[in-house]
Amino acid sequence: MRLSDLDYSLPKEKIALFPAEDRPSAKLLCVERASGVCSHKVFSDLPELLRPNDLLILNNTKVLPARIFGKRTTGGKVEALLLKEVEHNVWEALLKPGGRVKEGQILDFSAEGVELLAEVMPKPVQDSGPRFLRFSGDGVKDKIKTLGHMPLPPYIDRPDQALDRSMYQTVFAEKEGAVASPTAGLHFDEGLLTKIRAKGIEIVPITLHVSYGTFQPITVEHVEEHKMFEEEYEITKDAAEAINRTKREGRRVVVCGTTCVRALESAAVHPVSPVCHSRKVGNPVLDMPFKSGGLMHSGMTETKNPSVPLIHAGLGKTSIFIYPPYKFKIVDALITNFHMPKSTLLAMVSAFLGYEKLMAAYNTALDSDYRFASYGDAMLIS
After folding, report:
1. Is residue 280 pLDDT above 60, yes or no?
2. CA–CA distance, 64 with 145 (Å, rounded to integer)
3. Cys-Cys crosslink for 164: which of 76, 153, 160, 336, Cβ 3.0 to 4.6 Å?
4. Beta strands 253-256; 333-337: pairing state
5. Residue environment code for 28-65, b if the CB has 16+ CB neighbours within 10 A, otherwise e
6. Other C-beta atoms within 10 Å of 382: how many?
7. What is the mean pLDDT of the chain?
8. Contact 211, 48 (CB under 8 A)
9. Do β-strands 378-381 and 27-31 pair in parallel, antiparallel, or remain unpaired?
10. Does the pLDDT value for residue 125 go beyond 90?
11. Taking 80 as the threshold, does the pLDDT of residue 254 lie above it?
12. pLDDT category, 272, cuts 50, 70, 90?
């Protein structure tokens, strides 16, 4: 696949800069996976569009207000996007402007009467993007939450506002660790979740901590050469058992968001088979059993239907990149937003729906005034 295949004309005014005031009021473009036929709904219609025996997967990661602003000892301004805490008070971060910040410098992020200082540590790998900051004092994470700003995607071209603290967070967010929201889940509110459960649909949470790589555009001409950033995920024993039971019984696994897809397809292996690992999964090698991130998953058991792949519980790391052609092992239906041109997310959805049908659906959405990107409208592909 070439990069030009993932390009399309997206007028700037189609990118949603603000969320809908009522989460489930977003438009929902329903696309038949087999035919590509589209129909127009509203996200609040979702309970009627799902089947009573479906299993719905949601990502319960929670976004940290991880953008902090400060100054160097020279007086120059600096911005840090905190990616994760690697040890006590030491954070992996992206700095802007990164090239001007030297090792050993003290960065001052203090504001509003809150003192927050950090020393720039030596780079573990030269010429790499991330840096490491060692913060001083107690209560560092609480200070970051007080002073930090929500890390809105770069295509939302405005400063973050107070409303983003709640609206750029799903109502089921629980496990802190993401620097970007699993935005397909932003359309749910508690009332909609209650209606879905009342229909007999089981809702299962899993966790994938979305990294800054979700915003990273593909820049190589041949899509297969793109390198994904590693992300951490967790699938609990209860979640794995529910997914395995659903697949064995021939029921649908409906997945909300490309983040959940990455976790599930990374954790899918065939039972009692050798396990291998590959990062690129648009090629036939990934039709073989595999794992992600070099971590063995526990719970390998024999099943009466060995053709059905299993999800194994545990913690993992994945740099999975899904692009056409790819045979999905777990996902039967997908809820997702409308993604930016030349993005890995667009490549994944193209693999799920098919390139021609996806482009036709996107043209339908553009002609029908759907809102695109993180705060935009949604698709249901089933």
Report:
1. no
2. 7
3. 160
4. parallel
5. bbbbeeeebebeeeebbebbebbeeebbbbbbbbbbbb
6. 18
7. 88
8. no
9. parallel
10. no
11. yes
12. very low
Neighbours of 118 (CB within 10 A): 26
pTM: 0.87
CA dihedral 325, 330, 333, 334 (to 10 degrees): -70
- Identity of residue 361: A
β-strand pairing of 276-277 with 290-291: parallel
Other beta carbons within 10 angstroms of residue 274's beta carbon come to: 9
129 is written with which tokens? 């993007």
305-320 pLDDT per residue, tens: 555 668 989 999 999 9
φ, ψ for residue 75, nearest 5 deg:
100, -10
The full set of domains in the chain, from first to last, is 3-63+169-381 (3.40.1780.10), 67-147 (2.40.10.240)
**Taking residues 270-290, what's their average pLDDT?**
35
At 276, the amino acid letter reads C
The number of beta carbons lying within 10 Å of the beta carbon of residue 85 is 17
